[in-house]
Structures are given as structure tokens and as C-alpha cells.
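Page 42, continued from yesterday. The earlier attempt failed because a stray header line got pasted into the input along with the sequence. Redoing it now with the clean sequence only.
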Amino acid sequence: MSWRGLRDKWALFVGPVVILLAWEILSRTGVIRATFFPPPTEIIARSVIIFEPDSGLGGDIIATVLRVLVTIVLAVILGVGVGIAITASQWMDRGAHTILAFLYPIPGVLFFPFLTFLLGRTEMAIILTALVTPLIVMILYTVAGVRSIDRTLLEVADNYGSRGAKRFFGILVPGSLPSIVTGIRVSLGFTLIAVIAIEMVGAPNGLGQFLWSNWQILRVTDMYVALLIIAVIGLISSVGFDAVADRLLPWRRDVRGAQI
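This time it went through. C-alpha cells are written below.
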């Protein structure tokens, strides 16, 4: 990376470094209780539990990441399909808008008890509960994307007989792609939050369950290790998605650069 690149990126790291340094000093000097706020260096040193064969975090990390991947893939496939279908008629648009406005303010984790009545404490119940909020987000962004397509383009497609799958994959999906990509990025964050919250209350494994169980027995350092890993997964998913999206959709990088 060039000097100019380093200069542009340093602001991304200086904030977290300052916070961690202040935390380290306050904990080491006793200003804050090290029992509840252990120094960051101890938390990092304790991160070796990721690789412990019996009580390690490796299995929990894999379980959480798999749930996030399955949930976001389902949210994108269903959200894009439903979102485009909704725009097919004004009647469906109004009806779906009422349902989405009713469901959107409800935290997704609150659907977990109802789904356990039907499915028990199964993996299916966890995935479906985590799916609620990102699915709604994907539908809303897809609808907004379709509405942003130039009406002239749609009329030309109609005049040339573009119907069915040809219209779906040739006009609607490409035309609404900028909004869909933004929706995926937002949904990715909601998915991680939902999965962790559900794991805390009803999953047999996962980072959320590990964090919650260690909080209950006041194994504070291990709790912070899980919290640190969740933050790293969130950072990697966000930065990684931007990197992949920028490579696949070069115009997106140009638009973001113009907004800075």
C-alpha cells in the first residue's frame, strides 16, 4: 500500500487504538475495576481459547458464521423475489406495505418463542427467527430499487414484449441492483445482530450462547473474547462485502468515492 493509501486509512484505526489504550491504562491503574473490565492485553492473550479442543470457541464461531451465511442468502433470494413481485401491482404494493410497516418495528428475536411452538428449539427455528428483519430490509430496498428504474425503460421493454423471466432478469434485477446491493450490506449487519441475540436466548451453541453463559458465571475475560470475535466478524463481513462488491460493480466504488 502506498504512503497516500496509508495516510487515508490511518483515521480508521486511530479511534479504536485510542479507546483501547485508555481502557488499558484505566484498568491497570484501578480507575475501573479490572474484575469487570480486564485490560485489553489480557483479553487478547486469552483469545487462545479459540483453539482449545474441549472448551474452545472454534465450534461456536463456525456455528455462528454458518447461521449468518444461510440467513443472508435466504434473505437475498426471498427478499429480491418478493420485492419485485410486490411492485407488479398497486394492490399488492399497498397490502404488502401495511404488513411490512406492522412487522418492521418488532425485534426479530421476539418471534423465536412463537416459532419454537411450531418447530421446537431447532436450527430451523433459529434461522427463521434471524431471517425476519433482514428479509424485510431486503424487500424494502428491492421495492425502492424497482421504483427508481426509469419508466421510459420499462415502457420500451413492454413495447418489445419483455415478459416473465426475461423481464425479471433482464430489466428489473439489473435496474434495481444499486439499491439491492445497499440492502444486502444493511441486511448483513442486521443478520449478525439477530443471530447473536437468538443464540443468547435459545441456541445450544454459537458465540451468543458462549457470551451469555460466561456472563452468567462471571467468567468476564472469556465473555470479552467472544465479544471481540463478534466485532471482528462484523468488521470482516462489512469490509469484505465492500471489497467484493467494488470489484464486481466498479461503478459502486466510483459513487462512494464521489460521496467522500
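Notes: The chain is about 80% helix and 0% strand.
Reminder to self: strip header lines before submitting.
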